[in-house]
Design brief:
The protein is of the alpha+beta class. The protein is built from 17 helices and 9 strands.
Length: about 475
C-alpha cells in the first residue's frame, strides 16, 4: 500500500467532506479549505485535541512509552494549552537567531567532509540524516557531534533505531495502542527501546546538571526549556528589523503569545519529552524533505542555476563572513523552492482532530459531527488538488512567488499543520533546510549519476515518505576564482 499514491489520482469533482469508519470510530474527511480553516482556527474550541497516539492512562508508568505521552503533540485540553503557551517563546525569530550559529557550524562540517576535487556520488538521505543528527545533538541535547567524521557514533546509531517507524513490530505496537490501549499498557509494551530512551534521558539530565553547577549558558533548546520550567521565559519585543516570514511558516495566533498568569513549571520528564519529540520530528523527516529538494533542483537544472545565483549573490554581500539568519530569511527564491518542496513532498500525508462537542456543518442538509468523532485533514490530497495547484505533479516554485501565493487559500497549504495545534518548531525546521541547501549549493553543483532514478519511486507500505531506491546524486565542486 502506498499512502501517497491516492494524491496522484485527481478527481474532477470535489465534495466538501465525506464520512468513513476507522474500526468503530466515525471519521469525517475534510476536503474544503474554508471548512478546514473554520474547524482548525475559528471553531478551534470544538476541536482542541489530536487523537492521542498513546493515551496517558494506558502507558506503562515504568516504561519508555510514558515519555511519549508527555510530548506536546500528545497532550490534551488544558494541559496542552499550558505547555504550548509556555514553550511558544522558545521558537520565536529572536530565539532562532541565537541558535542559528550551531546550524551554520553543522553545515560547514558537512561541506568540509564532502571536499573532493573529483566530486563524488552520495545517497542523499544518508547524507542529510547525518546533518540533522548533528543539529539535534547540538541544539536539543547540548552535544557537539560530527557524524561525517565519526560515522557510527552512538547518538547517530540510536537515532536511526528510534526513528525507524517502518519496522513491523513498531507498526503493530502503535496500532495496538490505538485499538487496545489498556491491554497494551497492562502488557507493559514499549514502543521504543528502553535502552535508547534511557540514553537520551541521561544525556539531557547530565547536561542540565552541569549547566546548573557551572552556570553555563548555551543558546540551545535545553537552556530555553530550563527557562520555561522556571517560568522565566517570556515573549520579548524584538529590537531586530521586522522578520520576513517564510511562506511555509506555521503562523502563531496573537493569543498564543500570552503566557498563563501563573507560568507552568515543566517537570524533568516533560522537558525530556519535548527534546525527544524535537528529535523524532527532526531526525528523519527533515532529512527526507531536504533529499527531495536537492533531487528536484538536480532534475530541473534551470531551477538549480537560479537558486545558485541567489546563493552566490548573498555570499558576495556577506564579504567572506558566515551566513547570517537575516541574510537567509531574505532569500525569496530559496523560500519559493522550499515551499514547493513541502507542497509536493510533505512528510505528513494528513493530520487529525477530535470533536469534543457536537458540531454543525451548515449545508443542504446540515451535517452533525458528533462528540467523540475524529476529523481527518488529507494534507497530501490538498497539496495535489489540481483546482488549487494546476498540474500538481510538476515541481514549480513559481506557485509561491509574490503574486501567486496570494491565491492559495489558507486551508489548502499545510506543511506544518494549521491553527493553534500547528507544528511549534516550523521556523527552526525551515531555517535548518535553507541553511544546509545554501552551504551545499555555494560549494557544489548537483548532477545526476548512473543510479539516479527518474521519475522517483516512493516506497510502498505503512512507512513514512521515502524513495524506494534512495536518491543518488553526484556532487561536483564548484570552481572558485
Amino acid at each position: 500500500m502506498n499512502l501517497y499514491a491516492p494524491t496522484m489520482k485527481h478527481s474532477r469533482t470535489r465534495s466538501r467532506m465525506f464520512g468513513m469508519f476507522e474500526i468503530l470510530t466515525p471519521m469525517f474527511v475534510i476536503r474544503d479549505p474554508e471548512l478546514i480553516k473554520r474547524i482548525t482556527v475559528k471553531d478551534f474550541d470544538h476541536f482542541i485535541n489530536h487523537r492521542p497516539l498513546i493515551s496517558a492512562d494506558s502507558a506503562n508508568s515504568e516504561g519508555s512509552t510514558v515519555m511519549f505521552t508527555k510530548a506536546l503533540f500528545n497532550l490534551r485540553s488544558q494541559r496542552w494549552r499550558d505547555v504550548r503557551t509556555t514553550l511558544s517563546p522558545t521558537f520565536t525569530g529572536r530565539k532562532m537567531r541565537q541558535m542559528f550559529t550551531m546550524i551554520v557550524e553543522c553545515s560547514e562540517n558537512m561541506v568540509q567532509a564532502l571536499a573532493n576535487p573529483a566530486g563524488q556520488e552520495c545517497e542523499m538521505k544518508d547524507l542529510f540524516i547525518r546533518f540533522t543528527n548533528d543539529v539535534i545533538a547540538s541544539v536539543a541535547f547540548g552535544v557537539r557531534i560530527n557524524s561525517f567524521r565519526d560515522k557510527e557514533n552512538v547518538f547517530f546509531r540510536y537515532g536511526k533505531d528510534l526513528s525507524n517507524f517502518s519496522r513491523l513490530h513498531v507498526i503493530l505496537k502503535m496500532m495496538g495502542y490505538q485499538v487496545f490501549p489498556k491491554l497494551m499498557g497492562w502488557l507493559q509494551m514499549d514502543i521504543f527501546d528502553r535502552k535508547h530512551v534511557e540514553f537520551f534521558t541521561e544525556l539531557f539530565r547530565q547536561s542540565v546538571k552541569e549547566r546548573q553547577h557551572h552556570g553555563t549558558v548555551r543558546p540551545d533548546l535545553i537552556h530555553l526549556l530550563m527557562q520555561s520550567s522556571k517560568g522565566t521565559l517570556r515573549h520579548q519585543p524584538s529590537e531586530e528589523p521586522e522578520e520576513v516570514e517564510s511562506f511555509a511558516t506555521a503562523k502563531e495566533l496573537n493569543d498564543e503569545k500570552i503566557l498563563p498568569k501563573h507560568p507552568v513549571m515543566l517537570s524533568e520528564g516533560e522537558m525530556v519529552a519535548q527534546c525527544f519529540l524535537f528529535f523524532l520530528a527532526g531526525f528523519d523527516t527533515l532529512a527526507t524533505a531536504i533529499s527531495f529538494l536537492v533531487y528536484e533542483v538536480t532534475i530541473a537544472s534551470d531551477i538549480q542555476e537560479r537558486l545558485y545565483e541567489e546563493v552566490k549573490q548573498v555570499s558576495e554581500s556577506l564579504e567572506g563572513k558566515s551566513l547570517t539568519y537575516d541574510a537567509l530569511q531574505g532569500m525569496r527564491y530559496m523560500d519559493m523552492v522550499v515551499s514547493e518542496t513541502l507542497r509536493k513532498w510533505n512528510p505528513a500525508p494528513g493530520t487529525d482532530r477530535v470533536c469534543n462537542q457536537d458540531y454543525t456543518v451548515p449545508g443542504d442538509p446540515d451535517i452533525i459531527i458528533p462528540k467523540g468523532a475524529s476529523v481527518f485533514i488529507p494534507i497530501a490530497g490538498l497539496h495535489f488538488d489540481p483546482q488549487i495547484y494546476p498540474d500538481p505533479d510538476r515541481f514549480d516554485p513559481e506557485r509561491f512567488n509574490a503574486e501567486n501565493r496570494q491565491k492559495i487559500p489558507l486551508g489548502a497549504y499545510l506543511p506544518f499543520g494549521i491553527g493553534p495545534r500547528n507544528f511549534i518548531a516550523s521556523r527552526f525546521a525551515l531555517m535548518e533546510i535553507k541553511a544546509v541547501v545554501y552551504h551545499l549549493l555555494l560549494n557544489f553543483e548537483f548532477q545526476r549519476s548512473e543510479r539516479t532514478t527518474v521519475p522517483i519511486e516512493v516506497a510502498k507500505g505503512f512507512t513514512p515518505l521515502k524513495p524506494e531506491k534512495g536518491i543518488y546524486l553526484q556532487l561536483i565542486p564548484r570552481k572558485t576564482n
